[in-house]
Amino acid sequence: MDPVLTTPPSASSQQQMAYVRLTPAPTQQVSKTELPAAQSVTAANTAMAAHNDTPRPDQNQRNLVLIDPATREIIYRVTDVRTGLVVRQVPEASILRARAYAHAIASGKSATEALFMTNLVA
User: Distance between CA atoms of 100 and 92, rounded to whole angstroms?
Assistant: First the structure.
């Protein structure tokens, strides 16, 4: 590593620097901080009150809580009463199939047996 050489400022450069302090100009006209009611801005009282109500469940939907036989996990499912189709499911079916496949492989089953186990419907 090379040594760093620094040179002190010369006396002539210190004499050339002069600090000038500027005085602020006096304020000519000051604006009013208090305005009459006709010139002020007020908030409109037209906003609706906030509600923290829980949404009502749809009458055409049914909530189910199941236990997956392959992974023994809890499944929350919302189904349509009229058609019987699944509207929403937590965790999703693809995640359940992946977990069942991984569990079957970990327990020593062949890939074909593991794929067969993932096609079971809960």
Answer: 13
